[in-house]
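Regression test case RT-17, inverse folding.

Input:
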């Protein structure tokens, strides 16, 4: 039977899930993902919809929304993996299957294994889960803010008209 500590080690060594390690380099990887997503995927799609020269605010917001959406999905996937292993580490009883889905069993951890797994869960997996949860909340808040700005932002020419002429922007029919 594979012990939960082995699952933790395999998760920590996996390329994507190792991004959640509690080190400054892990968020540099996430920032790199944001930069690559913005330049390679989101900006070209947003440029096809909104001209960067005519409506730069909508262009930047649309590209930012696409970037935040993809990054949020990646962080969610990492969080789900760490949450699964963290829950198994902290649990006293773990379901397992010997050969297939039809012969599932429940394994009760011996006291020494339970103590070791709970130490790993409390001091290794739980801080990572908390950091990932906070990252998800932050990216979600940024996403909601960007969508709100995108939905209610007036076109740039209206803003320029009001600044140049010192007058309110012209009303457009709905």
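Golden output:
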């Amino acid at each position: 039977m594979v012990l939960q500590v082995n699952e933790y080690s395999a998760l920590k060594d996996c390329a994507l899930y190792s991004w959640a390690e509690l080190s400054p380099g892990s968020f540099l990887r996430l920032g790199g993902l944001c930069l690559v997503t913005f330049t390679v995927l989101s900006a070209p799609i947003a440029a096809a919809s909104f001209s960067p020269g005519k409506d730069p605010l909508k262009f930047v917001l649309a590209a930012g929304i696409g970037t935040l959406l993809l990054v949020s999905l990646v962080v969610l996937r990492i969080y789900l993996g760490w949450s699964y292993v963290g829950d198994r580490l902290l649990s006293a009883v773990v379901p397992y299957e010997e050969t297939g889905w039809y012969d599932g069993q429940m394994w009760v951890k011996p006291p020494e294994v339970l103590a070791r797994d709970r130490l790993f869960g409390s001091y290794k997996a739980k801080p990572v889960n908390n950091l990932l949860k906070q990252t998800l909340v932050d990216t979600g808040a940024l996403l909601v803010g960007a969508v709100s700005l995108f939905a209610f932002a007036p076109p740039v020419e209206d803003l320029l008209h009001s600044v140049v002429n010192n007058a309110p922007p012209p009303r457009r029919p709905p």
